[in-house]
């Protein structure tokens, strides 16, 4: 998967010098068009056809697209109307997240046969540290091949894998031979491989940052490596340090099986635009309820409530409020959301999507837990 949002680079984690100097064996496994592939597996009539999971021909947003659809330029997070315009034969199917989670658990069980150091990024991708693995296999490439074969045998789905000596390069490698591919970046290859890539391909550099770099004359990894650390820090703040090191193929972040989620959110796209606050309040109720159900199930709480609004012309605005204490109930979230929403009315254009996110997360007894790099928001799609 690729990160379309420009959320900044993963944070670096300080580790002992001896550990930093150790050559690690990291695998990044990424399922191929996961949601769409599950649908094609379970519905043979969809095989070989352009499929979009989520949305509809008239409304909504594409959650995932099959490779047949991607050939037409259809991508995840694309408005359905745009996707249909690009691919008139596109078939929309409803998502089945319960099924995707079940398959994801099957895949996770396969990972666990080799290592306990598994860092999931989403349902369909994860990092594995196999430097010291449960089967005593010296070759990380052999482990990646075995995992891919087992995933195919158990789930009838294909996975791509990248093998390297750090997380940054392993993730780049997994994209190299998609779909159903394997690519290895050795320590001797690392710096040269990065040098030839456009900066927009780098994990942690989104569209806005890539555009800024391009304006500064930074087009490739080689251009990025030519910049001094002070210059990058001045231009990009603390992110500059991360950019400085990855341009050299260096990334000392560890695989973290105990990552803490940064945020949890849900959103819904409506079949008809909303124009009044009463309807918006009604539509927000199941969204808020879904966020709170996750909080109750997981035992986490958050202090920052964010309301997301997408208008009929696809303009997106957000409004947030951070509370002194973690929210204690669904009603409290609803009260904050209402406070954030009311100033928006009356609206001059219809609302096509509403979303609610809870962030600044912590457990009931441990609100101060540190947030961890690369933890994507959990999006609970309605």
From TrEMBL:
The EC number(s) this enzyme carries: 2.7.7.7
BP GO terms, sorted: DNA repair; DNA-templated DNA replication; error-prone translesion synthesis; SOS response
Presence of keyword Flavoprotein: no
Annotated keywords: Cytoplasm, DNA damage, DNA repair, DNA replication, DNA-binding, DNA-directed DNA polymerase, Magnesium, Metal-binding, Mutator protein, Nucleotidyltransferase, Transferase
Record field: catalytic activity: DNA(n) + a 2'-deoxyribonucleoside 5'-triphosphate = DNA(n+1) + diphosphate
Catalytic residue list: 125
Sites marked Substrate discrimination: 35
GO cellular component labels: cytosol
Localisation: Cytoplasm
Alphabetized InterPro entries for the sequence: DNA/RNA_pol_sf (IPR043502), DNA_pol_Y-fam_lit_finger_sf (IPR036775), DNA_pol_Y-fam_little_finger (IPR017961), DNA_polymerase-Y (IPR050116), DNApol_IV (IPR022880), IMS_HHH_1 (IPR053848), Rev_trsase/Diguanyl_cyclase (IPR043128), UmuC (IPR001126)
Subunit (UniProt): Monomer.
Family: Belongs to the DNA polymerase type-Y family.
Listed name of the protein: DNA polymerase IV
Organism the protein comes from: Ferrovibrio terrae
């Amino acid at each position: 998967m690729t990160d379309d949002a420009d959320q900044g680079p993963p944070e670096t984690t300080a580790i002992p010098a001896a550990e930093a100097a150790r050559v690690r064996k990291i695998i990044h496994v990424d399922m191929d068009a996961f949601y769409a592939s599950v649908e094609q597996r379970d519905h043979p009539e969809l095989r070989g056809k352009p499929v979009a999971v989520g949305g509809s021909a008239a409304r909504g947003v594409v959650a995932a697209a099959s490779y047949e659809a991607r050939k037409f330029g259809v991508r995840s997070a694309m408005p359905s109307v745009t996707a249909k315009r690009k691919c008139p034969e596109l078939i929309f199917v409803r998502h089945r997240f319960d099924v995707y989670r079940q398959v994801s658990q099957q895949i996770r069980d396969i990972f666990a046969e080799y290592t306990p150091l598994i860092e999931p990024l989403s349902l369909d991708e994860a990092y594995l540290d196999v430097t010291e693995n449960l089967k005593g296999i010296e070759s990380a490439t052999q482990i990646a091949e075995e995992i891919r074969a087992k995933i195919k045998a158990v789930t009838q789905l294909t996975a791509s894998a990248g093998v390297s000596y750090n997380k940054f390069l392993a993730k780049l490698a997994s994209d190299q031979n998609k779909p159903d591919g394997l690519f290895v970046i050795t320590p001797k290859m690392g710096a040269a491989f990065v040098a030839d890539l456009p900066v927009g391909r780098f994990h942690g550099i989104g569209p806005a940052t890539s555009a800024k770099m391009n304006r500064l004359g930074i087009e490739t990894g080689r251009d990025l490596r030519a910049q001094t650390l002070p210059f990058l820090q001045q231009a990009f703040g603390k992110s500059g340090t991360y950019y400085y090191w990855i341009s050299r193929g260096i990334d000392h972040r560890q695989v973290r099986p105990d990552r803490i989620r940064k945020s949890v959110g849900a959103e819904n796209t409506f079949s008809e635009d909303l124009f009044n606050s009463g309807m918006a309040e009604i539509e927000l109720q199941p969204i808020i309820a879904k966020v709170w159900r996750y909080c109750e199930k997981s035992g986490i709480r958050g202090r920052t409530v964010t309301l997301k609004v997408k208008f009929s012309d696809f303009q997106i605005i957000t409004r947030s409020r951070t509370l002194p204490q973690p929210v204690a109930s669904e009603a409290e979230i609803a009260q904050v959301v209402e406070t954030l929403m009311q100033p928006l009315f009356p609206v001059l254009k219809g609302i096509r999507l509403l979303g609610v996110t809870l962030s600044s997360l912590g457990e009931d007894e441990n609100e101060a837990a540190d947030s961890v790099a690369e933890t994507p928001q959990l999006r609970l799609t309605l």
